[in-house]
Automatic annotation (TrEMBL):
Gene3D superfamilies for this protein: Hexapeptide repeat proteins
Location of this chain's protein in the cell: Cytoplasm, Cytoskeleton
The protein, known as: Dynactin subunit 6
GO molecular function: dynein complex binding
InterPro entries in UniProt: DCTN6, Trimer_LpxA-like_sf
Cellular compartments per GO CC: dynactin complex
A Gene Ontology biological process term: mitotic spindle organization
Role according to the record: Part of the dynactin complex that activates the molecular motor dynein for ultra-processive transport along microtubules.
Keywords tagged on the record: Cytoplasm, Cytoskeleton
Length: 227
């Protein structure tokens, strides 16, 4: 007698997961203004409750972080923020409760463009912030470079075409004139080459422009996530 096939077992009920996907607990900015040409890499982050404005042709690399938790942030045209760099007031040391409350109250009272610039962080045209640097400065002038691991304290005003060398620490509320080079932690000098030879400065900015073009070709743009 031929063996009879076993009746097919009914498949057990499969439970469909209804659990919501995990979302970030970090607050998203209430207002993000991104130019259409901005490049935002995957895993770049915007957090905070104050406005964030990013100008034309700026580039945010993976795991870079822009925080407006305590004050607005503005990046001008052609800025580059590299991997794990942090921009925004409060991104350095943890603030105590009173400092955080005071800073948030000041930010809420900022209504004009000028006051936003005074209370927050403003990066001028073609500023470069390299990997692991922390910038809480009030203003960084056009064409300046903050190298790997450097820290700019709150309230700093950095002039145009300055270079903050790797691992340097700029104390809060420091003012640096145009073309300053900070090296060996805290030593300073004026870059006479850039100051007195405009053709060298033009060549440097031309290289920066080529880098922006290269990033657009190599880095997938995730800007749609934030628009």
């Amino acid at each position: 007698m031929s063996a009879q096939p076993n009746p097919a077992r009914s498949a057990p009920d499969r439970r469909s997961s209804t659990a919501p996907k995990r979302t970030s607990l970090l607050p998203k900015p209430s207002s993000i203004t991104l130019d259409a040409s901005v490049l935002v890499a995957q895993h770049a982050q915007f957090t905070g409750t104050q406005p964030i404005t990013i100008g034309p042709n700026s580039v945010l690399h993976p795991h870079s972080k822009i925080s407006s938790a305590l004050a607005p942030v503005v990046l001008g045209e052609g800025c580059v923020v590299y991997e794990r760099a942090k921009i925004g007031v409060g991104m350095g040391a943890e603030l105590d409760h009173e400092s955080r409350r005071s800073s948030m109250a000041s930010a809420r009272n900022s209504t004009s463009a000028g006051s936003l610039r005074g209370e927050g962080t403003f990066l001028g045209k073609n500023v470069v912030v390299e990997s692991n640097a922390i910038v809480e400065a009030t203003e960084i002038g056009e064409g300046s470079v903050v190298q790997v691991g450097a820290v700019l304290g709150r309230g700093c005003i950095i002039g145009k075409y300055c270079t903050i060398s790797a691992a340097s620490v700029i104390s809060p509320y420091t003012r640096l004139p145009d073309y300053t080079v900070v090296f060996s932690g805290s030593e300073q000098r004026i870059d006479k080459t850039l100051q007195l030879r405009p053709e060298i400065l033009d060549a440097k900015m031309a290289v920066h422009t080529k880098q922006l073009d290269m990033f657009r070709k190599l880095i997938p743009n995730n800007v749609a996530k934030w628009t």
